[in-house]
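TA notes, week 10

Several of you asked for a full example with nothing omitted. So below is the full record: structure tokens for the whole chain, then the designed sequence directly under it. When grading your own attempts, check the secondary structure regions first.
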């Protein structure tokens, strides 16, 4: 019995040692991954500046391709640790080449990484995407890459609201339009569910709005600013249809609102620390898609607020169904809308991921070789 007990303790010690070692190795890999990807990305951007001057369309296509490769690595962190992602709901494949506002519920820091992985196989979407993200992310290593790409950083707080909306308007009419971006990712709740739920429910009770548990009442400022500036033309009573903002230089506008509902198993959100370290036992994340033509969305503030609240009440119902049954509804929720049926796992090709890592490793090696050669010639 003593030998059996000693053997059991030894096995437990070995398993715990491997568990801790695996976490350390994964975090070391993510750190090294950042060190050889981000600097290489910036050097490539500098080297391609002549192309930006001579052929700006080509430059932004190349830059978008490299942003896709970079975001693929972030999405792959969780996948490589066993945190699988599934998608289901309405078929949105016909929206991939159009302008769209992507409306997502926000629960944790894992949401962005999950979306980066999920959008990889959706045509040109990742190359031409514009994120609206919290201002604090600008001071991260990826935030600097996102700034070059043309993403928008939103500073939270009522005191910044008017200034931020004006900055967003200017951003849409300059960076968004000139860089041929198409999809705009927006988190209308304005923050994480766990941090804002109590305040949102208090506001709902005070104003006789629905009391939500799994989502927050959305904010309309950024959505209205986007629709007013790059949305579809609106009809005026005293004349023909006109655009009430600046459209793409090629005449296109935002045609769709793509509604993505993120559900974590049993309502337990993952976070970016978990995706990078793999310290929690793996459990899946599921994305549910819907889409709406922007031409059917009210443009006045009261109408848009009502429309958004209705969509988030529907998100609440979808998440309640998911948490009680373990799956989203499989049938069409609206007549004439095609659905994808059962949830499908999102996967990454190992050879594709290997080729991306090799590209950045070789780029980093070449850059360091060039720098060392120049230093030697100077000395």
């Amino acid at each position: 019995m003593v030998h059996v007990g000693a053997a059991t303790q030894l096995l437990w010690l070995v398993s715990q040692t491997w568990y801790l070692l695996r976490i350390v190795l994964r975090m070391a890999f993510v750190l090294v991954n950042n060190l050889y990807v981000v600097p290489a990305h910036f050097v490539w951007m500098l080297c391609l500046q002549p192309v930006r001057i001579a052929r700006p369309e080509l430059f932004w296509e190349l830059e978008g391709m490299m942003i896709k490769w970079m975001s693929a690595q972030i999405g792959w962190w969780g996948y490589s640790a066993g945190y699988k992602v599934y998608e289901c709901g309405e078929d949105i494949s016909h929206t991939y080449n159009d302008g769209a506002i992507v409306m997502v519920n926000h629960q944790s820091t894992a949401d962005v990484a999950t979306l980066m992985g999920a959008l990889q196989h959706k045509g040109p979407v990742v190359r031409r995407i514009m994120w609206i993200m919290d201002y604090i992310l600008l001071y991260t290593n990826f935030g600097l890459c996102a700034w070059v790409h043309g993403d928008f950083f939103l500073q939270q707080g009522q005191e910044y609201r008017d200034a931020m909306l004006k900055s967003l308007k200017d951003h849409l009419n300059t960076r968004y339009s000139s860089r041929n971006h198409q999809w705009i990712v927006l988190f209308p709740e304005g923050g994480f569910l766990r941090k804002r739920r109590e305040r949102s429910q208090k506001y709902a009770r005070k104003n006789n709005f629905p009391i939500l548990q799994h989502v927050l009442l959305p904010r309309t400022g950024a959505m209205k600013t986007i629709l007013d500036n790059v949305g579809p033309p609106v009809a005026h009573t005293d004349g023909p249809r006109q655009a009430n903002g600046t459209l793409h230089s090629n005449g296109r506008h935002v045609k769709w609102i793509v509604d993505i509902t993120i559900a974590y198993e049993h309502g337990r959100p993952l976070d970016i620390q978990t995706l990078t370290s793999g310290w929690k036992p793996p459990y899946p994340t599921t994305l549910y898609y819907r889409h709406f033509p922007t031409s059917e969305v009210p443009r006045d503030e009261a109408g848009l607020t009502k429309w958004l609240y209705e969509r988030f009440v529907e998100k609440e119902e979808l998440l309640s169904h998911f948490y009680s049954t373990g799956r989203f509804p499989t049938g069409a929720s609206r007549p004439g809308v095609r659905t994808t049926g059962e949830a499908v796992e999102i996967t990454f090709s190992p050879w594709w991921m290997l080729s991306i890592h090799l590209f950045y490793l070789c780029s980093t090696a070449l850059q360091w070789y060039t720098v060392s050669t120049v230093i030697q010639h100077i000395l």
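Strands lie at 85-89, 99-104, 129-134, 152-154, 183-186, 254-264, 285-293, 344-345. Use that as a sanity check on your answer.
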